[in-house]
Amino acid sequence: MSTAPQSLKVLRIDASMRRAGSVSRDLADDVIASLRARHGEIDVTERNLADGVPLIDEAWIGANFTDPADRTDEQKAALALSDTLVRELKEADAVVIATPIYNFSVPGALKAWIDQIARARETFRYSEAGPVGLLEGKKAYLVIASGGTEIGGEIDFASGYVRHILGFIGIDDVTTVAAGRLMFTPEESVASAKAEIAAIGAAVQTIAA
Fold first, then answer.
1. Residue 49 near residue 43 (C-beta atoms within 8 A)
2. Using an 8 Å Cβ cutoff, are 53 and 116 in contact?
3. How many helices (H) and strands (E) does the chain have?
4. Does 195 score more than 90 pLDDT?
5. Any idea what the Cα angle at residue 10 is, between residues 32 and 14, rounded to 5°?
6. How far apart are CA 8 and CA 96, in angstroms?
7. What is the Rg, in whole angstroms, of the alpha carbon atoms belonging to the chain?
């Protein structure tokens, strides 16, 4: 008896504070459409960071560094959202992170999300050779837009940082879709990004088992 292939599970993270008129969100729509065209039905979980992500605090840190078996109900509650965000990452086959560059770096909400999911014993572990990422075998698409910053240039502290964090938790297969310097060359930048997305649609291989 044959079984139907599992649908590709995609986690989409939107970091722009603009809910309308956001280039990064529009390009992420195109990436999702490209993945759907290639894989057929896909299962997309959306995490809109414009809804807010709490900063980690002393209670969160205390709970995180307590052995799971010894956590109190209060500590479990302090980590509840973080546990959900980590679970979303673990269950995804592919991750689409769409972000603008704000003041040469990532939006505060994206940094807050990163702090919530970068957890020892959950998404990375320490070894004698240093930290080891635990989320291997996933594909990531970094969709990034900027008004004036050259993406990949010396004052872009966003794209390299996000790629580093992804590698830190074990996601080394990262494709970047960039629309930079939109204040100066909007049409050319968006057209270039859309060409990169078209290439993704042509080249992407089935990720789910």
1. no
2. yes
3. 7, 7
4. yes
5. 65
6. 13
7. 18
Strand order in the sheet with 42-48: 42-48, 8-14, 94-100, 139-145, 173-179
d(CA 176, CA 155): 17
List pLDDT tens digits, range 17-60.
999 999 999 999 999 999 998 888 899 999 999 999 999 999 99
Helix, strand, coil % in the chain, rounded to nearest 5: 40, 20, 35
Q: Report the distance separating Cα 173 and Cα 187, nearest Å.
A: 28
pTM of the model: 0.93
- In contact, 140 and 97? CB cutoff 8 Å: yes
| CA–CA distance, 164 with 178 (Å, rounded to integer) | 17
Q: How many Å apart are CA 166 and CA 96, to the nearest integer?
A: 11
Residue 114 in tokens: 């990163």
From 159, 141, 175, 113, select the one nearest 42 (Cα to Cα).
141
- Give the residue carrying structure tokens 């010894």: 70
Instruction: Report d(CA 50, CA 98) in Å as an integer.
Output: 12
